[in-house]
Structure formats: structure tokens, C-alpha cells
Design brief:
This protein has 175 residues and is an alpha+beta fold. It has helices at 49-56, 67-77, 102-118, 122-144; strands at residues 61-66, 89-92, 95-100, 155-159.
Length: 175
């Protein structure tokens, strides 16, 4: 019991603030909790299996893109087992046209999905997702409207977003 001259207090000392015996070294305070990381990309890194199967069945596709976009695709998918870097790449004013097979499309989709899912770099994620989405949209058209035979045109994948023309707008084409 306390003497009446000491005021009563509802404040209790912190558990770590109790006096330590003289021979014991002082302990450092508890380390702060690590900062919470931002949540990663939403969704699974695995592409839709139906898209992959449809892509695998494409015999001939042409990808048209700016040379830097093509370089990014090669950098991301070039080492994937089923990605075959074509021997011939047509170029015109920094724009390339490249022929692909189904296995290369599958490899491109899966590699781009993987990079988009694991990277912390928002620029890399945006580029990978954009290219993947363009390829996937073209494959989705094949899946939604299948055809077969060798008389059809190759699947054309164009990675070149532009604003729609407005009425009265003219364009000058480079020759």
C-alpha cells in the first residue's frame, strides 16, 4: 500500500521499462515493423488456357509494331523454349512486320504475362501488358470466330494505337 502523500496513478510502466539488474546490458528497443508493401498485380500471372490453346493452333500470324516494341518482345520472350526468333524481319521507317507461328505466340503471351506479374517497374508492366493484350485480342478473334484451311489470311496483330480520324482530317502518307 502506498503512503497517503503519494498520488495514486492509473498509469503503469511499460513492460520493458522495469529496472534491469546491474550486470545486464541494456536491450535495444523493439525494431519497427517492416513497411507494408504495396499489393502486387491483381490476378494470376497465368494466361487463359483457352487463349493459349487457340494461339498454339495458329499456323501463321504477322505482328506489326514499332522497332522498340519488337525489341522489348524479343528481350522478354526471346529465351522462352517455344519462342522462335524469325530469320527475316521486314522494316519500314522504324516499323517492323514479323511472321510468327502458334508456339511463338504462346511463348510471347506467357512471357509477357509473367513479366507483367513480377515486375516492380510500372513502365515495364504497362508495356508488357499492352503487347500481351494486343496479341491476346487477336487470338480471341480466332477463338470466337474459328476457321481453318490454308486459304485464309494470316492473323494480323498490329501494335500501333492511334486516335481515330475526325471528319475532314487528312493524312499524308510517307512514300
Amino acid at each position: 500500500m502506498r503512503p497517503e502523500s503519494e498520488p495514486q496513478s492509473d498509469v503503469h510502466p511499460a513492460p520493458d521499462s522495469a529496472p534491469k539488474p546491474a550486470g545486464e546490458p541494456p536491450q535495444p528497443p523493439n525494431p519497427p515493423e517492416p513497411p507494408q508493401q504495396e499489393p502486387g498485380p491483381i490476378g494470376s500471372p497465368a494466361p487463359d488456357p483457352d487463349i493459349l490453346r487457340a494461339a498454339a493452333g495458329i499456323a501463321h500470324a504477322t505482328v506489326k509494331a514499332q522497332r522498340d516494341t519488337w525489341a522489348f518482345l524479343i528481350q522478354v520472350a526471346g529465351n522462352e523454349k517455344h519462342f522462335h526468333i524469325p530469320g527475316k524481319v521486314k522494316g519500314d521507317h522504324g516499323f517492323v512486320s514479323v511472321r510468327f507461328s502458334g508456339p511463338s505466340l504462346v511463348a510471347a503471351i506467357t512471357s509477357l504475362s509473367h513479366i507483367a506479374h513480377i515486375t516492380d517497374n510500372p513502365n515495364t508492366r504497362a508495356i508488357a501488358e499492352h503487347i500481351r493484350d494486343k496479341i491476346t485480342a487477336a487470338v480471341r478473334e480466332v477463338l470466337d470466330n474459328p476457321g481453318s484451311g490454308n486459304k485464309g489470311k494470316p492473323v494480323c496483330i498490329v501494335i500501333d494505337d492511334r486516335p481515330a480520324r475526325t471528319e475532314g482530317e487528312t493524312t499524308i502518307e510517307a512514300k
